[in-house]
Write a structure and sequence with these properties.
By secondary structure, the protein is of the alpha/beta class. It is built from 14 helices and 24 strands. Bound molecules: uridine-diphosphate-N-acetylglucosamine.
């Protein structure tokens, strides 16, 4: 197993190229199951989660060729299995994304109940209810969701009780091949959902309401789709993490290949704290603050402040003046980074889903443990300013979602090395 060793206290500077969005790449890969032609996907992030989903597709029978680490060719016209096995699914919760497309295309499938980041209960009940509403008969057998719809899925009105990103994506893909019209009410409107809608629309599926919380989809009644070449949108969470790297070290960093519009809640917050932000069409620059003010964050669905950047901003709060507060509204247990940040000397108190962070403590390097994907990046950020050396263990969490993290940070001037546990 690998770990990261970081020597803190250095200013950063320079440019960093942002990779494609993991959370867009995953539904796009799953949507390849709806595609009858050879599909080319570019700007894929070279991260473990993308490899896991590609492996799952291969296991189902898709033929896959990696043109480069960031580009793939997929042919899915000869799927031989409809069972997404535990051994692959347990590595990544987003594997649930094959449920909608497999069921819509084959009228049956089995998908292992997912594992993934341990950030609360994270059930998949909303995905299951939606498929049932579309006519599927679903049971849980031996840890698998066993779904059957021998006559295909029927278009239906799906009203989500809670806004769910992958749930909306699953229904979109199912509805694309269902018979008749589906209305998705209380749909997620994250940029990753919008990209999936646009891809399906270009493939000939009638979709209305893109970017709103009410989507309308007219299905093709199991006729497979012809996809055009796809380029994955930039990763707004990776971008936000590098903005935080600039912010926590109070340095100037230029991000390339970003869509600033997707990061408005984040850049507004950074401006409020005191940083300079310069946004152009595909670049974002953060410049140092003369004074870093305490701040308040409440995580919500897009376009609100993303839960996936909550941990990174908590690390940043340790370097701001005064008391900041962060309220986590989406995942009840997404605070596992708190105890690890405390090991570095952070002054944080947690009450329910609200963390109060008193800034101004000097962080001191220590051994810490990565617990989930975004929590791990908060530890990397804190280590960049901690005195002495920090060792971050269990970094396979980071490898799930950050492409070439140590290479990108080193190029910005960080002292970061990947080592093997003895
Ligand atoms: C996606 C993102 C993840 C991000 C999250 C919220 C991907 C691959 N992952 O996760 O990075 O943190 O959105 O922006 O895109 N819920 C239920 N039942 C369900 C489904 C969800 O109760 O069947 C709850 C969840 O526990 C959570 C809330 O709904 O409290 C939102 O979760 P959801 O949007 O579904 O998250 P994911 O799609 O899994």
């Amino acid at each position: 197993m690998d770990y990261l060793q970081i020597k803190g206290g250095r200013a950063l500077g320079g440019e960093v190229e942002i990779s494609g969005a993991k959370n867009s790449a995953l539904p796009i890969l799953a949507s390849a199951l709806l595609c009858e032609n050879l599909l080319r996907i570019r700007n894929l992030p070279n991260v473990a989660d993308v490899k896991t989903l590609a492996k799952l597709l291969e296991h189902l029978g898709s033929e896959i060729e990696w043109v480069s680490p960031n580009e793939i060719l997929i042919r899915s016209d000869r799927i031989i299995h409809t069972k997404a096995i535990y051994d692959i699914v347990r590595k990544m919760r987003a594997s649930i994304l094959v449920l909608g497309p497999l069921l819509a295309r084959f009228g049956k499938c089995e998908v292992s109940l997912p594992g993934g980041c341990a950030i609360g209960a994270r059930p998949v009940d909303l995905h299951i209810k939606a498929m049932e509403k579309m006519g599927a008969d679903i049971s849980i057998e031996g840890g698998y969701i066993v779904a059957k719809a021998p006559n295909g899925l029927k278009g239906s009105d799906i009203i989500f009780d809670k806004i769910t990103v992958t749930g909306t994506e699953n229904v979109l893909m199912a509805a694309a091949l269902a018979k008749g019209e589906t209305k998705i009410i209380n749909a997620a409107k994250e940029p990753e959902v919008i990209q999936l809608c646009e891809i399906l629309k270009k493939a000939g599926v009638e979709i209305q309401g893109i970017g709103s919380n009410e989507l309308f989809v007219r299905g093709t009644d199991r006729e497979l789709l012809k996809f055009e070449e796809i380029s994955v949108i930039p990763d707004r969470i990776e971008a936000g993490t590098y903005l935080c790297a600039g912010a926590i070290t109070n340095s100037s960093i230029l991000l390339k290949n970003v869509l600033p519009l997707h990061l408005e809640a984040v850049t507004n917050k950074l401006s409020e704290i005191g940083f300079g932000i310069e946004a152009k069409e595909n670049t974002l620059k953060i410049t140092p603050a003369s004074k870093r003010k305490a701040f308040e964050i409440i995580t919500t669905e897009y376009p609100g402040f993303p839960t996936d950047l909550q941990a990174q901003f908590m690390a940043l709060a340790t370097q701001c003046d005064g008391s900041s507060s962060i309220e986590e509204r989406l995942f009840e247990n997404r605070f596992m980074h708190v105890s690890e940040l405390q090991r570095l000397g952070a002054n944080i108190t947690l009450r329910g889903n609200v963390a109060k962070i008193t800034g101004g403590e000097t962080l001191i390097g220590a051994d810490v443990m990565a617990t989930d994907l975004r929590a791990s990046s908060a530890l990397v950020l804190a280590a960049l300013v901690a005195l002495g050396q920090t060792q971050i263990h269990r970094i396979y969490h980071l490898d799930r979602g950050y492409e070439r993290l140590e290479e990108k940070l080193s190029a910005l001037g960080a002292q970061i090395t990947r080592l093997k546990e003895k």
